[in-house]
Specification:
single chain, alpha/beta, FAD/NAD(P)-binding domain, 7-stranded mixed beta sheet, 10 helices
């Protein structure tokens, strides 16, 4: 029995569309591809930021670049320059518009919006059968980029929950040349809390309230903290909300849901796309799309997200365990990191290009005793495995 498709991509978010774009450009032996997305339409509902480590395919879509970042605690402010690796903003609306245009003109990849998956894919002869709201589809291979479950306490060491608004203020209150990467002025007991400000103009910025917490938090949980941050930034000046965005990113998934069988793959934020200790995912998704697309166009099986090197995994796990057990130290740790390490080393490390010397410099900037004590303390994983 011949299948309807060579590849069915479930979920048309960043990961699904990034792979679809690669296959639309150079399909090779993967010429019958469909992407199905439950949303009836796209909105400018999120932002992706990253340090520019070199030329990239989405350069024309970048909204803004900054060469200076600030990290603040109640007692100390660190301002760092990064002119060779500017911090860049790519808005989802521009990305979605670009992807829809490319796929609408593709002979090999089609995108269907407003189509939901009903149940789990079922293995059949020569592939998989997927029931959808638009009917059944069969495909030789399936890549599922959707979250495997709703974020829950215990599924991740920490959750990075955020709620943000793009605001226009009636007077200039923002430094348009400097990103407030982490401002820990407004503390939240039991969590690592900070304000993130992307200044788009002196009177306009994307202001986000972020929590690192074992419990995933929705916008209603963050609203009060966010209002307090906006008042601190804008004072009594009237503000207008242009748009809002919110999300929950895993920081150290406890369980890998795994594939259902040969020819089935999970990808995306909950399946290895996000760096555990940072939540950065966009550039990692692009590297995965490059590698997976290359494999598929040669007729091979799809590739999952590349695991981080062992040393990176150990460092990330230890750092997250410290933040989980002592969140009140979070501001101190991040200020020491950015204040005691060359910015070029930090950018390479956060961008998954860190050298052994970069890692050593980062370790040297942090309080050794705190991390040694954490190593000797049983973690929730150790207790669960005992």
């Amino acid at each position: 029995m011949q299948t309807d498709l060579d590849l069915l991509i479930l979920g048309g978010g960043c990961a699904g569309l990034s792979l679809a774009l690669r296959l639309a450009e150079a399909p090779g032996r993967c010429r019958r591809v469909a992407v199905i997305e439950a949303r009836p339409d796209y909105a400018n509902d999120r932002s992706w930021c990253f340090w520019r480590l070199g030329p990239h395919r989405f350069e024309p879509l970048v909204t803004q670049s900054w060469s200076r970042i600030a990290v603040r605690s109640a007692s100390r402010t660190v301002v760092a320059d990064c002119p060779q690796t500017p911090y860049q903003l790519l808005e989802a609306g521009a990305f979605y518009t670009h992807a829809r245009h490319v796929l609408a003109n593709s002979d090999t990849v089609r995108l269907s919006l407003g189509v939901s998956v009903i149940g789990s894919p079922v293995a059949v002869a020569h592939g998989w059968r997927v029931e959808t709201s638009a009917g059944a589809l069969t495909a030789a291979q399936v890549i599922d980029t959707r979250p495997p479950s709703v974020p829950r306490h215990g599924d991740s060491t920490l959750w990075q929950s955020f709620f943000g608004q793009e605001l226009v203020c009636e007077r200039p209150v923002f430094d348009a040349a400097c990103v407030e990467l982490m401002d820990f002025t407004d503390a939240v007991p039991g969590a690592v809390a900070f304000t993130y400000v992307l200044p788009l103009a002196p009177d306009r910025a994307l202001v986000e309230t972020t929590l690192f917490d074992p419990h995933p938090r929705g916008p209603s949980d963050l609203a009060q903290h966010h209002r307090r941050a906006v008042r601190r930034l804008c004072g009594d000046a009237p503000t207008r909300v242009v748009r809002s965005e919110a999300g929950m990113l895993p920081m150290g998934m406890a369980h890998d849901p795994g594939a259902l069988g040969r020819g089935h793959l999970r990808a995306g934020l909950m399946s290895g796309a996000a760096r555990p200790a940072t939540g950065y995912a966009f550039q990692r998704i692009q590297r995965w799309a490059d590698a997976c697309g290359e494999s598929l166009r040669h007729g091979d099986t799809p590739r999952g997200h590349q695991p981080d090197p062992l040393l990176t995994r150990i460092m990330d796990r230890l750092f997250l365990d410290v933040l989980r057990s002592q969140p009140e130290r979070g501001a101190e740790l991040f200020v020491r990191l950015f204040g005691g390490t060359d910015m070029r080393r930090i950018v390479r490390f956060l961008g998954d290009r860190g050298t052994l010397l970069d890692r050593a410099a980062i370790v040297a900037s942090l309080p050794a005793g705190l991390f040694l004590r954490q190593l000797l303390r049983p973690t929730r994983r150790d207790l669960a495995e005992a």
